[in-house]
Amino acid sequence: MATEHANATDVDEPNGTNEAGGTGDASGAGDASDLDGENLVLGYPTASEPVIDGESIAAEPGAVTALVGPNGSGKSTLLKGLANQLAPDDGSVLVDGRDVHSMDTKTLARKLGLLSQESTSPDSITVEDLVYHGRYPHRGFFERTTDEDARAVEEAIELAGCGHLRDREVGSLSGGQKQLAWIAMVLAQDTDVLLLDEPTTFLDLHHQMEVMEIIETLRDESDVTVVVVLHDIEQAARLADRMVALKDGEIRARGAPEAIVTEELLADVFRVDADVVQTENGPRVTPIRARHEEPASSATETDPNGDEPASAAEEGRAPIGTEASGD
Amino acid sequence: MSGGQSVAGGGAAKRSEDGRIGWLFDPKLVSVALASVAVVVAGGLVQVSFGAYSMTVVEAWRAVLDPAVLLDPRWLLNFLVGEGLMRSITGFQGELPELAHTTLIVWDIRLPRVFVAAIVGMNLGVSGAIFQAVTRNELASPFILGVSSGAGLMILLTLVVFGGLTAFLPLIAALGGAVAFLIVYAIAWKNGTSPVRLVLAGVIVGTVFNSLQTGLFFFADDIGVVQSAIQWTTGSLTGTDWEQVRMALPWTVVAVVLSLAGSRQLNLLLLGEQTAKSLGMSIEKVRFALSGVAVLAAAASIAVAGIVSFVGLIVPHMVRNLVGSDYKRVIVGCLFVGPALMVGADVGARLGMSVLTGADSQIPVGIVTGLVGGPYFLYLMRRQQNMGEL
User: Which of A232, A260, A309, B167 is the most buried (most CB within 10 A)?
Assistant: First the structure.
């Protein structure tokens, strides 16, 4: 897999070096936090092969990094690894130079927040109470809410634009409104690093835009380092300062959106023929047809059967399914 | 931004005004508590009035409120902590003043049974509520993680094989439940647990222990032993006394305080394992500690009343239906609804047979709770669409 890396998309070369190597020097990024995954090997106990086999990724401090890739490419797995939800078999994840695995769980949760793809809550909890749960890592065992908690919650609710929902019960909300409430909860956590797992999937256009705008505000008005998994490559290109494209658990390309969203990359990573036009709103992708033959570069590596367990694991079915069936 | 600040100020003021106990005055919670207290008082009054020595309700009231007991700390301590401790606390060495006949019957025999019922109801309600959050399963009961089967097996072993230890039966039963819980946890553990693994391990241990328990019945050669075993394994309050109040009360207080302290953790568990973890909860530690509290509560109730089924399953349901899913309120609600159900059921257990058949016999209260609980559960299931989701 490591040799494969070299002859992957050539975009990797110019940008990849300063990204992967940028561990220490947060170039002029003020208070923003670094998040580095180094030589990560990530897998699930149920699958013998790791999903991610020795990749390094560095999120640009204070900027938005988007992970894109087809189903089963390992982007959610990578995000879980970065969030310390999945213990790496090898390698380490560092936040501001400290290994997340050795950090106290609450200390980590004050530094790094994660919005999972599927979130469940009791139906009768109000949005405000849900958002207050985001303050959990900031409170001691017996501590009551402080003014600071209240301030963080208000700011989070305002930023997420769900002030009008604050007294509604979560069970009565639409999918889009629920997502805004959950985003408000992770915002209230007030972390330096924020990881979002497909926050716009299953939302209508309006709520997709709402979520995008929240992330844009975070990028423009705060020092929060954001890593977001997105399915929609156009959306990712519009939103992100940096993009990382994955396929079959490997990072195929990384760099600025204009350099990543190309017809060649779409053919190689997403297996579609597409027209890409650069517009003022970022690149516009018009998919034309699916490519049925394996692209030459990965034909040697990927056998069609081997792809299956990886994709099941990537969707998180193995570990989450067990939990979900207990609901 | 200035607009946001003023909103923030308002929200903070509203929260801190609510303060530490503001949530207690939620109208729904208050009415649940009042209604439950009414049931407990009514049930208790029936219990103290009727029986082998019947008295009118007025007489019963007089006996309950007899100033000779209520205003005499020596008598109160005598009941609550036992005679020996009473004497060392008060330094009183003489004979206690004599009580009226009715007062003695009510205070010495009938009232403690009501108290034990209330304590058992509280414990089972709280225990069930915790287990339902920990396993994220509405069908969880205090006995889901092997507690009842462990206790049942030890009860049978004690009665059938180690007859000499019968005096320690309450303790042995409670310990058996706790040990079974630890076994379940050990089986479920593989780099951590999950709700499903815990429930499955509970089923496995329960099946094996129940088989052993049933097998032991074959070795019981005395009908009295069998009856006693059945009383213990279905749950009974017959013959409970101040001794049982004294045995269960301290553990109940501990379990209730701990579960109230843990209510925020329980609320977070309801958001799912992933969210709880990403918010910085040490999920395995919290889950084990909370399960431990729930087992403590269940064991306290087993020690005084045996294995009373269904109460721990239904009470949290009823409360959640009435006050919502916030666990602070759910736990407090269980402290009231549990006793109401248990005291009510015990009226049926103690007096039902004599009303129905005229026979002067009592049935185990666990039979009544099952008879009441099953249909109520059916009603809930029919009414609610999303049964099983928490």
Answer: A260
pTM above 0.80, yes or no: yes
* H-only helix segments in A99-224: 105-111, 127-133, 147-160, 175-188, 205-221
Q: Residue A244 sits in a domain of what CATH number?
A: 3.40.50.300
Full residue range of the structural domain in which residue A92 is found: 35-118+192-290
Cβ distance of A116 and B261 shorter than 8 Å: no
Query: How far B291 CA lies from chain A's nearest CA (Å)?
Result: 17
Domain count, chain A: 1
Note the pLDDT tens digit of each residue in A16-43. 334 333 333 434 445 788 899 998 999 8
Is residue A158 one of the residues assigned to a domain?
Answer: no
> Would A217 be classed as within a structural domain?
yes
Residue at A249 is within a domain? yes
Mark out the alpha helices in chain A (DSSP H runs).
2-6, 12-21, 75-82, 105-111, 127-133, 147-160, 175-188, 205-221, 233-239, 257-260, 263-265, 296-299, 307-314, 317-324
Q: Determine, for residues B271 and A121 on separate chains, whether the beta-carbon distance falls below 8 Å.
A: yes
The answer to whether the Cβ–Cβ distance between A105 and B135 falls below 8 Å is no
Give the model confidence (pLDDT) of A79-109 as tens digits. 999 998 888 989 999 999 899 888 999 999 9
Put simply, whether B279 touches A (Cβ < 8 Å) is yes
| CATH 3.40.50.620, applies to B110-383 | no
ipTM for the predicted complex: 0.79
Q: Do B279 and A327 touch (CB under 8 A)?
A: no
